[in-house]
Amino acid sequence: MSTTERPRILVVGGGYVGLYAARRILKKMRFGEATVTVVDPRSYMTYQPFLPEAAAGSISPRHVVVPLRRVLPKAEVLTGRVTTIDQDRKVATIAPLVGEAYELPFDYLVIAMGAVSRTFPIPGLAEQGIGMKGIEEAIGLRNHVLEQLDKADSTTDEDVRRKALTFVFVGGGFAGAETIGEVEDMARDAAKYYNNVKREDMRFVLVDVADKILPEVGPKLGQYGKEHLEGRGVEVYLKTGMDSCVDGHVVLNNGLEVDSNTIVWTAGVKPNPALTRFGLPLGPRGHVDTQTTLQVQGTDYIWAAGDNAQVPDMAARKAGNENAWCPPNAQHALRQAKVLGDNVISGMRGFPQKEYSHANKGAVAGLGLHKGVAMIVMGKMKIKLKGRLAWYMHRAYHGMAMPTFNRKIRVFADWTLGMFLKREVVSLGALEAPREEFYEAAKPAPKPQAAAEPAPAAKAEAKDNEKAKAS
Ligand SMILES: Cc1cc2nc3c(=O)[nH]c(=O)nc-3n(C[C@H](O)[C@H](O)[C@H](O)COP(=O)(O)OP(=O)(O)OC[C@H]3O[C@@H](n4cnc5c(N)ncnc54)[C@H](O)[C@@H]3O)c2cc1C
Description:
471 residues, alpha/beta, FAD/NAD(P)-binding domain, 15 helices, binds flavin-adenine dinucleotide
């Protein structure tokens, strides 16, 4: 890393907020005004709204991520984790991918570490659950689901087959409803290539403790989303939780028990727990407490935004909802990042800070090919769309929101190819252990015992023969 005399702006996290904030700062900064350092354990930003489509194979996984070093050529990008912050010394501790941790001084700090899956101590969940926060999980889920079809197609054991063809999803918010919608569509579509697996052999179960799914699009569209999924054969259980899933035996608190190899956990997110080591003021649910300017409460050189921050929702507050906070979504993350970037520049130059305010523009959700729901807010009007039109809205909105021209083109190219070529249904489960086969081929062969040394029985026989000859 560079050791220049320029002030350092340290951006912790290269996700939505980190990437956009760093880009904004670099765009507005004068040449040589500061060093921008972005630290993230991954070398790429993930466009999470496309994870369900990556899991369904509609978009190539590599096109859902944006390489940080390529899009931030003027920044210093470090691949590692920020583990602690010492505010008195203005020093962060970085744990790189390999090697010893080291300290990095900073002058200005941006906290953009996002959220992690919110889990509960449910027996079996840690061992069996599959999350949906990163591209690795989306690829893993896709391979795993297709592998279950391969297994079911090739076994004669009815219990093994039933377990393989049962898929349980816990959490019916955006991430959960979109993921089950996409994966169910892909899996049932793939059934046509299997002799012993039919569409109707698969069982999909969606569970949520709330009394509705897709709360982001409002009660009516949420109800439509539920009925739509049920119409496709998905069993939806509301006001229901999962009590345990040890060895894939799922027990729901409504009395239902099913065996499943696939338990997808999308029951919400919580702020990154690493924040607790940073000594920053945290809100009741663990978010960094920020002012309307995105400055962390009580500081003038630290900013936070996105899923790890508790930002007052000024637009909702002005409309009468006094205690509103910005919900954790990409819509806010993107806009907050831009204001944050401007405020870092202003802070560095001693200019006043801008207040963040953004009125909700609605939400779009894809539920599989040509299916979706969308709510578009235009002033006081809420336009509700469903089915194919909503799905087009979903694709148009996210296609345009995907960072960088390069990725936009690749995503639209994937969609266009998908219209003419059939969906890819190959399972590459072996990706998770790519060296296994080579190891089997290359490991030293065991010494052939007979040639090197006679086996004990043969030795005894030879001795007996010698004795017989001598007598
Ligand atoms: C499946 C799914 C679907 C979604 N769909 C939608 C949608 O349709 N519409 C919508 O508006 N929103 C959607 N969202 C939410 C949206 O993606 C998030 O709100 C947004 O990504 C938040 O941005 P962020 O920068 O706060 O966090 P992230 O984008 O998660 O970035 C956080 C970054 O911090 C890094 N990090 C973590 N720990 C450390 C550390 N110790 N040191 C350094 N870096 C660290 C992480 O690696 C990551 O790159 C979806 C989310 C998911 C999971």
